[in-house]
Predict the structure.
Amino acid sequence: MGKAKAVRITGARTGLTEDVRGRQRRYMFAMVVRTVCVILAVVLWQESRIAAIVALVGGTLIPYFAVVFANAGREGAPKVPESFSIDYVPPPALGPGADARADATREQQS
């Protein structure tokens, strides 16, 4: 059987530690891409000046966008989960028990 998908049932945001960790990972990934761009610029300089210049421009611009996205702040509050829109109708509530009906009948006769 397949693994059941976890359903988020709260409107709470993710924890601050998890949010900061995610932003750090995105920043580190951007810096790895920047490093690759700079290395490509050095390696390709003699082979293809245009590719080297494109890589150099990428290596120059990526840090700016990485910092902007890392400092963008926390995500917004999540929307209502889709699981709330299931067309589930609960069964009707039980009526009064036999003792309650007998009590009501006695009160009416009094």
Residues 15-73 form one domain. The helical segments are 16-44, 49-70, 98-109. The chain has a mean pLDDT of 79. The two ends are 62 Å apart (CA to CA).
